[in-house]
Design brief:
- By secondary structure, the chain is an alpha/beta fold.
- The chain has a domain of about 130 residues: Rossmann fold (3-Layer(aba) Sandwich).
- It contains six helices and eleven strands.
- The strands form three sheets. A six-stranded parallel β-sheet has the order 1-11-10-7-2-3, covered by helices on one side. A three-stranded antiparallel β-sheet has the order 4-9-8.
- The radius of gyration is 17 Å and the shape is globular.
- The two termini are about 25 Å apart.
- Bound molecules: 6-phosphogluconic acid.
């Protein structure tokens, strides 16, 4: 397993400035794409704020139908369940912009997890460019859990990073909630990976991972390193407060 060795750290004053940067990346990605700009979304509180910003400020400024949206992970719950990442994205973004349903590829959290892994992997293979035998998303947005998890790859299932499958069934260690997650092979095969991390509660984890403190190698997020693409840690000042930038 390879550790995160080189990456760009981009610190914003707050989540609004960070959201504006993500908006510009989506705007340019969609405009520049000759076909579709493929994006895997994350759940979590920071993406939720970003989605609200996008729907308020970029409703008519992004070629939304040039983007195909997927998820990096999903909770195994129905699409109308409050835990659903799809529902959160629909309520804060998709329900407020003009985007065709065929541009949105939800993970079916209501399906039998082992069957959804197969089904969603096929959907990804049909819609995302393959590179070196794995799908290569144009952009993957990731969050960072306080335990160092990313997507739904948790420290006690760190082996999911090295699975040769496109997706795997994961289990939240505290909630015992099943999840569907992209594997490390697919995450690290992306053209660009952006971590979205805000808040003082993540500062210690950011320091541990970026400065390779004790036990950093036990944290899944430490192994996010695109084979050929770019990695950017987009932080707010609070999350970056323990690192020199
Ligand atoms: C999820 C996310 C998960 C999230 C982190 C950070 O489905 O919950 O994919 O990986 O990004 O837990 O979440 P917050 O941004 O809410 O702290």
């Amino acid at each position: 397993m390879e550790f995160t060795v080189s990456c760009k750290i981009d610190v914003s004053k707050g989540v609004e400035e960070l959201s504006e940067k993500i908006a510009k990346i989506l705007q340019s990605g969609a405009s520049a794409s000759e076909n579709y700009f493929t994006v895997a979304l994350s759940g979590g509180s920071t993406p939720k704020t970003i989605f609200k910003y996008l729907s308020r400020n970029y409703k008519d400024k992004i070629l939304w139908n040039k983007i195909k949206f997927f998820w990096g992970d999903e909770r195994c719950v129905p699409a109308d369940h409050p835990d659903s990442n799809y529902l959160m994205t629909k309520e804060n973004l998709f329900g407020k912009i003009e985007i065709r349903a065929e541009n949105i590829f939800p993970i079916d959290g209501d399906n039998i997890p082992a069957e959804e892994v197969v089904s969603y992997s096929s959907i990804i293979k049909e819609n995302v460019v393959m590179k070196d035998g794995f799908p290569s998303f144009d952009l993957i947005l990731l969050g960072l859990g306080e335990d160092g998890h990313t997507a739904s790859i948790f420290p006690n299932q760190i082996e999911l990073l090295d699975s040769k499958n496109i997706c795997e069934v994961a289990l939240h260690p505290l909630l015992n909630q099943k999840r569907i997650t992209l594997t490390g092979e697919v995450i690290n095969n992306a053209d660009q990976i952006i971590f979205l991390v805000t808040g003082a509660s993540k500062a210690k984890m950011i320091d541990t991972i970026l400065n390779k403190r004790t036990d950093f190698e036990k944290l899944p997020a430490s192994f996010v390193k695109p084979k050929q693409g770019k990695l950017i840690w987009m932080l707010d000042e609070a999350a970056a407060s323990l690192i020199a930038t």
